[in-house]
Every structure is written in C-alpha cells, then in structure tokens.
Write a structure and sequence with these properties.
With 71 residues, the protein is mostly helical. The protein is built from three helices and no strands. The longest helix has 25 residues. The radius of gyration is 20 Å and the shape is elongated.
Length: 71
C-alpha cells in the first residue's frame, strides 16, 4: 500500500482505503460506484492476462495430458 500511495493512479483507492480503515461511513451509491470501478479494473487486468496467454503451445513428445481437454 505504501508503494501505491506514491503512484497517482491509485490515489483514489488509497484515499478510500484510508477512509474505510478509520471506519468512515460510505453511502450505498458510493459502495456501488466503488464495486463497479473495481470490477472494471479487474476485468481489464484479467482480459490483458488472457490476451497475453498463447492459444497454441509447442511441446516436445512424449506428452501426458491429465484432466479435461476443452476446445
């Protein structure tokens, strides 16, 4: 968290965490906005991770596959 305090793009998050840590009250509307913003951020992170994953793996034989194979 200390590193996030130095990064301006996390300023709102750090302020919110400080507020909640001090047992500050948050309205229902603000809770919804916080949750929606977090979901948007997490969605972008997850999508970027999936895009970075290759959809074809080059393996050398012999190979043993254990579990379900989908696709």
């Amino acid at each position: 968290i200390n590193e996030a305090r130095k990064d301006s793009k996390y300023a709102g998050l750090v302020s919110a965490m400080d507020h909640l840590h001090k047992e500050g009250r948050v309205s229902k509307e603000h809770c919804h906005k916080i949750l929606n913003d977090c979901m948007e951020i997490l969605s972008k992170i997850i999508l970027n991770d999936f895009r970075a994953e290759p959809n074809l793996m080059k393996l050398k034989d012999p190979v043993t596959v254990v579990g379900d194979i989908h696709g």
